[in-house]
Design brief:
InterPro entries: Prot-tyrosine_phosphatase-like (IPR029021), Tyr/Ser_Pase_IphP-type (IPR026893), Tyr_Pase_AS (IPR016130), Tyr_Pase_dom (IPR000387). Its EC number is 3.1.3.48. GO terms for molecular function: protein tyrosine phosphatase activity. There is one protein chain. The chain is 49% helix and 9% strand. The protein has 251 residues and is of the alpha/beta class. The chain has a single domain, classed as Protein-Tyrosine Phosphatase, Chain A. Strands 1-3-6-4-5 form a five-stranded mixed sheet, covered by helices on one side. Helix 6 (153-165) packs antiparallel against helix 7. The protein is globular and about 60 Å long.
């Protein structure tokens, strides 16, 4: 048996840069390694990190960050074409509204904000995720998709890809929760934000992704209908994705 590559690329400038390969699908095939990568933002990559991406053949970066996020942490990587797919962050604004109203910002309120954010990925951001799939279908050359922390917008995108390929939900959740093992939280900036709130804000929890997938099921008729009607990924496109990104397991 050929050893599996490391899922984490262990880059110096992006702690949450990971490979989606190796997951087994319902029909026994396996997601190809070194084709699909998910990450936190790429503005802090070192020269050595950039060389790693070049050695992997990464030629596209799909960036879910909002406009101000991209402006604050812009990047250029040799040979990598950037495709902005902006989804503006809403959790920070929600937190600021709570604080401005003189209300307590608790961990539970932050969990509620996070779950609403994930529901809104489904309700309001279908065009961005449709373009993600359009890029996957356009070419199977290696690509990376990312946001700022690589955990929420990116986490939902990764879940959609794996589910479309036929990876069981349990494995999809496993990949989603790996962020908690890899992502390095930024330093605290606002003394009004307690550490338990920061733990909610900068980590992931199963109920966040569940909130999105429940919205898919309850408001859009389930994954198959959501992919086909909202994201333009019908049965033919899903089969094309599987031909491109799946392989038979190694003997």
């Amino acid at each position: 048996m050929t050893p599996s590559p490391d899922r984490s690329l262990h880059l110096s400038g992006a702690s949450n840069f990971r490979d989606l390969g190796g997951y087994r699908t319902d029909d026994g095939r396996v997601v190809r390694w070194r084709r699909l990568f998910r990450s936190d933002h790429l503005a802090a990559l070192t020269v050595d990190d950039a060389q790693v991406l070049a050695s992997l053949g990464v030629s596209r970066a799909l960036d879910f960050r909002g406009g101000s996020e991209r402006a604050a942490a812009a990047y250029q990587l040799p040979g990598v074409v950037q495709h902005p797919l902006p989804i503006e962050p809403t959790v920070v604004q929600g937190m600021q509204s709570i604080l401005a109203a003189g209300e307590a910002l608790t961990a539970q309120r932050t969990v509620e904000l996070m779950c609403l954010t994930y529901r809104n990925f489904v309700r309001h951001n279908a065009p961005r995720f449709a373009e993600l799939f359009a890029q996957l279908l356009r070419s199977d050359e290696p690509l990376v998709f990312h946001c700022t922390a690589g955990k929420d917008r990116t986490g939902y995108a990764a879940a959609l890809i794996l589910l479309a390929l036929g990876v069981p939900r349990g494995e999809v959740m496993h990949d989603y929760l790996l962020t908690n093992e890899h992502y390095r939280m930024p330093a605290a900036r606002d003394p009004r934000v307690a550490q338990e709130v920061r733990e909610v804000l900068w980590r992931v929890q199963g109920p966040f992704l569940d909130a999105a997938l429940q919205t898919v099921d309850e408001e859009f008729g389930g994954l198959d209908a959501y992919l086909a009607r909202q994201l333009g990924v019908g049965s033919a496109a899903r089969e094309q994705l599987r031909r491109a990104y799946l392989q038979a397991p190694a003997a």
